[in-house]
Amino acid sequence: MSISLNENIKTIAIKKGEALFREGDTSQNFYILSLGSTCSFTVKNSRAIPLRVSIKDDLIGEEYSVQKGSKYNYNVTALVDSELIVVKNEDVQSYLDQGQLWLKNILSAVSTKILNTEKLVSDHQIIDSNSFEDGFSMDTENLLLKSL
């Protein structure tokens, strides 16, 4: 995946079991997973509720890139050692500000719908079995919960 927003893009590494961000953190970046895998999840009644497993080239937290000052409504933890490209939300905003207002408004509306859907999935504790080849194991859940 090629990025050309600006020259300030950097890469970070996180270890297996390490949190990339936590629910309630203010969103300042979104991420492109360049190596490894992560799990996005929430916690309800002391149980991890997985929302999505991300793999190479997946975007993480992109729905917040057009929502100024919003807080993540889920956690993200590395399932294996992983590397991610960091894209600053302010860079995305700056890029969008140079374009057409209607496009920015559409992206904002889509972002809001995604955020609302994520909350609905979390509230109803829906697990996408396609995200976990061997199901969602207790070992995976414990790894996620330890990252908090």
Describe this protein's structure:
Helix content is 28%, strand content 29%. The chain is α+β, with helices and mostly antiparallel strands and 148 residues long. The chain has a single domain (10-146), classed as Jelly Rolls, CATH 2.60.120. It has a 4-stranded antiparallel beta sheet. It starts with 9 loop residues before the first strand and ends with a helix.
Mean pLDDT: 82
Q: Uncertain regions: pLDDT < 50 for 5+ in a row?
A: none
Overall outline: globular
- Report the CATH architecture: Sandwich
CATH topology: Jelly Rolls
CATH superfamily: Jelly Rolls
- Number of β-strand runs: 8
Query: Nearest-angstrom radius of gyration?
Result: 15 Å
H/E series, N to C? EEEEEEEEHHH
Oligomer classification: single chain
Give the count of structural domains. 1
Percent range for helical residues?
25-40%
Q: What about the largest sheet?
A: 4 strands, antiparallel
